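Please check these two lines:
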Amino acid sequence: MKQNSKNVREMPAWVVVAVIMVAFGCFIVLLYLHVDILAVKRDTEFSLFGLVPPKLKHRQAWQIGARVCPLLSLAWLIWRYDPPGKRIKRYVSLAFAMIVSTVVLVRMVGHTYEQTLAQQGVGTMQTALDTEYYQEEMKLMGNLGVYGGKMTLDGEPGIYLCRQMDTFGPFATQVLADTATQPFSKGYEEYSRFEQDGLVQFHALSVQHYQDGYWLVVKRFVSIDDLLIEIDHLDDLRRYIVQMQYARHDGDEASVAREFEETAGEAVTRTR
């Protein structure tokens, strides 16, 4: 049986191309806004093939428009050319796929770009502290997951919370040799487990490269079981992360290196 011709319209090829172009253009806008924010955080400018794109004013309006326009275009396309009985189902499924794929792609490209900036040593340690984290008096706070969450250490899973973060530098050259499994120059962490004062703890060691030199970062994590902390959701750790202490060690390289080795302890696996 043929469907009612009044309810079914033939879809011209130019309509499909137009909707795809609108979606692609909005994706480019969202991607540019995201990487530009990452560049600003590291006190630099985003450039493409040596060219710096013009800055977009009214960022929030651009972000809202870039999210809404593809959905409106998709809704119009389905409403005009799909049979009535399939419109809602088709729109929901395609809109969900569009949103998820856009978020994933933007995050993936942004993460790659951020890693590239880190390897190039763009920005300074203080820039990172002022943007990626934020300080209140002598306490440092940041994203959940960097300072607390589910972790598996020596094959034993648990929930750990960062109690202390120390930064050491700047050093003119890389002071720790890369290990076989942890490329420190790219910002990954090396874990070292120990027990102190009856608490199961571990150090997370990393090397960060910025324009002002190489910085060693040591974070001390403690199991929430040993801290007698009970949580229902991981987000509950945020109020404890606020209590984390932060200390910056700078000055003469030799003395800073000694302070680092005293703090990191067994986390120091190989030095030059």
Notes: The helical segments are 13-41, 59-81, 87-120, 125-131, 238-241, 253-264. The first strand starts at residue 134 and ends at 136.
